[in-house]
Amino acid sequence: MRTVHFSASFVRRPCRPLPTSAAFVPTRTLARGMKTHFAPSLLTGVGPVGPLGCWGRAGPPACAMAPFRGSPAAAASVAASAAASAMDSPALISAVKELFEEALAAVVPAGIPTQLAMVAPTDQKNAQLGDYQCNNAMALFGMCKKLGADNPFKSPRAVAEAILAALPENELIKKTDIAGPGFINVTLNDSLLATTAARIVTDGVAWLAPTSRKGKKVIIDYSSPNVAKEMHVGHLRSTIIGESLARTYTFCGASVLALNHVGDWGTQFGMLIEHLNDQKAAGKATDDESVSDLTAFYKQAKARFDEEDEFKDRARKRVTTLQGGDKESLRMWQEICDVSRKEFSKVYDRLDVNRLEERGESFYNPFLPETVKELLSIGVAIESDGAVCVFPEGKGPDDENVAPLIVRKSDGGFGYATTDLASIRHRIDVEKGDELVYVTDVGQSLHFQGFFDAAKRAKWWDPEKTRVEHVGFGLVLGEDGKRFRTRSGDTVKLASLLDEAVSRCHDNISQRNEEAYGGKMSKDEVSEAARIMGYGACKYADLKNNRTSNYVFSYDRMLELKGNTAVYLLYAHARVAQILVKAGVADEAGMKVALESADGNIPLNMDKILEDGKAVVHITAPQERALALHIARLPEMLDDTLDGLNPHRICEYLYELANFYSSFYTECRVVGSDQQKSRLLLCESTARVMRKCLDLLGIEALYRL
């Protein structure tokens, strides 16, 4: 007999209230010999949790209560409960799958493999399909037909009926029905959805974080600009995609090591150091000014390298002395790196990217000779025309149209592939990463496939133990459909792009402040709002796209007030915040506190939204239910985001959340209604989830616009 322990329940049931001081209440036997121990919750009148962490099928009232502990009037925000930290919060879809897998195990005949539940969320716009759909019946019937006379089912619909008959007793599901030949539609209990919304206010959003990544170490390689070059628009994609994934992994319980694989080594440093040396010798620059304009400095060095044979010879010799450890060469190399690092930091500060640990190409230099030596010794690499190469398995130097991975050049130098092989080995063997994620453009896909394959053949990487992924992304295009460039044809500097976005937002907000609000916002408030909106608009315009796709960058489109833009979402959040002010639950002073707080939560007058010290949400209208269901689907969206490493899923969820809230607010009166407290809780729950999603995208929230 299998026993499952649960620390708390949070569905209000029409049963005798449990004493909150009790350790456990009696168990009851469930389907197929399972037992569940029911722990009392801090919620008044809470009953048992169903099997496998699922909430029951019996239909309790469509309201839920969560207690507020402490003095409501004095509270600046609601403290997280002890129960929240102890209780896992699985995604709804996982709970539904577990129930159906229990049922499938009971109905699958002998000779048929164990079935995983094929459960998918339904479109919320089509309520008749329920909330989820189980699609196992037809596939299972097809398998059972092979049993011939031993097939116990006459049709897929009969399979669906058997699955439902075997479904364990539970309180998660309100109703089920079979559609068409065997699709099982599942509708969840309203009480579960109401409780989730209430608990977000009492215990914060963190309790809804999925636990699938908890305890894992994830190493994410992103941004990775080149020394002596300014960051351009192409770096925006790598930086913000990687940062969003890092934030999401962290929220989901992983330990994240964010690495900046800076291009700080290579043959180009020969010309850069020689040019720097010549400038200083001619007295044209002091140490502080020598490479202050990175772009100009690099262009000057490159022009001389291309046009002056004597300079080219000196540059090549300088590479040799640098790689040999010459102190003066290393000093000038470090000077160039330091100036670049300062410029990178300015951009990272603007983008709120502060977790990156620099680990450039030079970090792996000591490991390169041994990397090549071992690849040769185990036969993964071979010598070809003086170079050391890794050919695709089964291929060699005599095969045509085969591009090998060059791990040591014929002149004895090492390339990107060698560094990347040393890095993947270090990240697995030394850093002990459970998941390795590399965020670069899709144009490097073949390179990553090559060194991933080499690492696997060398047995440095076991795909069964470590997840290794290349997160490729497409190009940023101009409105002409070509690579996004300046009018002169130069690459767009990232700093310039951010400046332009903030400037346009400042003009828009200033005009709106005067026309719609009579100048209530101060100049500082306008500037701060423009900064948040400008940076947020740039990030969201990028992240909302499937990362593998190219996208057209347009200031006009990304700053539109309607549609799937950061501007629309920031206004949506600000509207929710102002409703709380209108209801007297919050005030403008609290908005300023929220802007400066770590979680962004608004200090609330809890007396005005709690009922007898408890957060109670009633679901009385379809718009309330749709909003609460979408909120409760947050965990499965986050799991989906990390499974596919696609931050655009967060954007889709956030945009849909804003639309569900808009429908709710349009159809359900909040302030002055007989459901004011309940609906204000839904407003606050929505705002908190909005802020968390914005935060996962690296975007700050606005409370007034």
Automatic annotation (TrEMBL):
SMART domains: Arg_tRNA_synt_N, DALR_1. Its EC number is 6.1.1.19. PROSITE patterns: AA_TRNA_LIGASE_I (PS00178). Residues 94-188 form the Arginyl tRNA synthetase N-terminal domain. Keywords: Aminoacyl-tRNA synthetase, ATP-binding, Cytoplasm, Ligase, Nucleotide-binding, Protein biosynthesis. InterPro entries: aa-tRNA-synth_I_CS (IPR001412), Arg-tRNA-ligase (IPR001278), Arg-tRNA-synth_N (IPR005148), Arg-tRNA-synth_N_sf (IPR036695), ArgRS_core (IPR035684), DALR_anticod-bd (IPR008909), Rossmann-like_a/b/a_fold (IPR014729), tRNAsynth_Ia_anticodon-bd (IPR009080). Belongs to the class-I aminoacyl-tRNA synthetase family. Monomer. This is arginine--tRNA ligase. It comes from Pycnococcus provasolii.
